[in-house]
Amino acid sequence: MLEANSLTKIYSGFTALSDLSLQVNEGEIYCLLGANGAGKSTTINLFLNFIEADSGTAYVNGLNVSEKPVESKKHITYIPENLSLYKNLSGLENLAFFCGLSGMKLDDAALRETLTAAGLQPDAADKKAGQYSKGMRQKVGIALAMARNTKVLLLDEPTSGLDPAASNEFAELLRKMRDQGAAVLMATHDLFRAKETGNKIGIMSNGKLVEEQPTSSLTHQQLERLYLSHLAN
Amino acid sequence: MMQLLLKNELRLYLRDGVLKAVFITMGILFIVSVVTGYHNFEMQQSQHAEATELSRLQWEQQGDKNPHSAAHYGTYAFRPVSVLTVFEPGIQPFTGVSLFLEAHTQNTARYSELEDRNPLARFGELSPTFIFLYLFPLLIIILGCRNLTSERENGTFRMMLAQGVSAGRLLRAKTAGLWLVTALLYLPFIVIGLIALLFTSPGSDTFFRFAVFTLSWFLYFGVFIHLSIFISARLRSSSVAFLSLLGFWMLSTLLMPRLISNISAEWHPVPNAAEFSIAIREDLERGIDGHNPYNVHTAAIRDSVLAAHGVESPDELPFNLGGYMLQIGEEYEKMVYDYHLARIAGLHDKQIGVYLATSVFSPSTLARQLSMKAAGTDLQADRDFYHAAEAYRLELVRELNEHLKVHAVGDQNFGFTAGYDFYKTNPTFQYDSPPLHFSGSGMASLLALQLIWLIGSFLPINLSSVYRNMQQGGTAS
Fold first, then answer.
1. Which domain holds residue A188?
2. Does B160 touch chain A (CB under 8 A)?
């Protein structure tokens, strides 16, 4: 579903990403770990074609993202660290608008149902998004993924700043989507969540993917030690 | 898709508290400007009717006097006040609406509005044109810049891109959205304007002029719409984008018109009133003076007339030589005035030429010219009135001189008088402002230039580099 082949990105002499190759399959949650500036967000931005790679290729559902930037996005739901919604629109209106942009036309009842399924309180759907907490906004993002029924999720530190309960709820929703066949690439600092939710972890350091392991092969302590050892390097 | 994007744009604008506040403020300003303009128009119209009647009454009832003394006594030509001056006063406050008509002299306008006003009035007047020229573009800049850059900065633009919408389509939607909102903001202004027009039962030409007037300003707004979108899309920082647009606004609306005005006056200087008057006096002194029998040219004409009729004294002529000579003198004086005024008009034309040529730097100078032309308050319209008044003056003086020539036969030149019965038969001044097509090619070329600005400002939005800049969402890290 998601494939990076030797992706390299250089900003004014600074190598943000170097020869990155990875693959995220259907029904898999791949957690990218690493310190700030390690290249996690750059990887996600390359899959979204928000930036262009200096070399290498990124594929989404078999589509080369730089050749088919618009088509490839039809398969993706993107949830950034702070999901951006129109503050003057309600959660329902935001969802309807973003769904509409991707060609989905759902009636009010279906949209409400999706928001509720994503964990948003029913009475919150009509409130202005400006009044939403971060967790509520992230749930609208999940609702968007559910409504659009995309098979690829790109998540850029989606649980950062969420309280543990909201974070847990979010992880639960992710697992549900994974079980339905979604391929999820999630950049995160949260080792615990990565171990609990992910199927695979990749550790990045200075723009390189320095470690890749299935989560089942690691305990929490082993993951932490591995992460810290790469951080020290 | 486009419909959805536009609907969202409109919804966002309508829920924007800042827009509401600005719109209400602008609305109040516009209503105040129309109401005060209309009040001023009504006052001028009533004064015009009163003065026209009084002036005619004074002419007819000036008492028994020599027709040439009556020509010196003079009368006034009043320019009809158009309701369109409510929206676009143009140069009228400077040129005035009346001309004093007398023998031998072509006077320029008298009693301009500004003469009667507080000196502070010269700094600017709250007219709809003032709002359209200065405030509306500023509003568009604020809305356009705020809308696009805030979407980039708060991440919703990225969210839209992430749904698989191309940056090009989003920019086109943003452009169309701003056009739509500008049209919605402009619509009440048009409606209020039409209501004000309907109060005066205007003719079809006034409606046509008003339509061109509103269209010309809408085209002008379009330039700012396009530039706001382009600059906001091109520059990543909202503050830099806003300052750049503000800089352009200041350059276009404040700096360039004054700069161009000074440059054109420097390149094509117009003689001041004293120089103008001295040049005319010198030319008049060199030519025929109908009043002075000792003037060398007058004497020569007198001798040739006497010879042609085979008489030795003017008293023996079958007509009054004084009346004849005064008319010859009048025609010579007209020639002198026409020559000097044409020279001034030529210099004014050259200045306007510079003004228009430099409109590539400022759509505002162009918009103002177009607006004045549409409203019939530009220099060309003023000249048309002036020529009509001059033609009337010449005909009136000719009639007076002819009366003297025909009826004061023999030595009755200064003793001859005419009274009410004659003066009431003299023509009255009738003037209707010419219809819009009178401006002809001038209007067409101004509209064409404004369209060039509009299209020229739209093209950069479609540059691939702008799309690329937007495609990246503005926050690549």
1. 2-75+151-231
2. yes
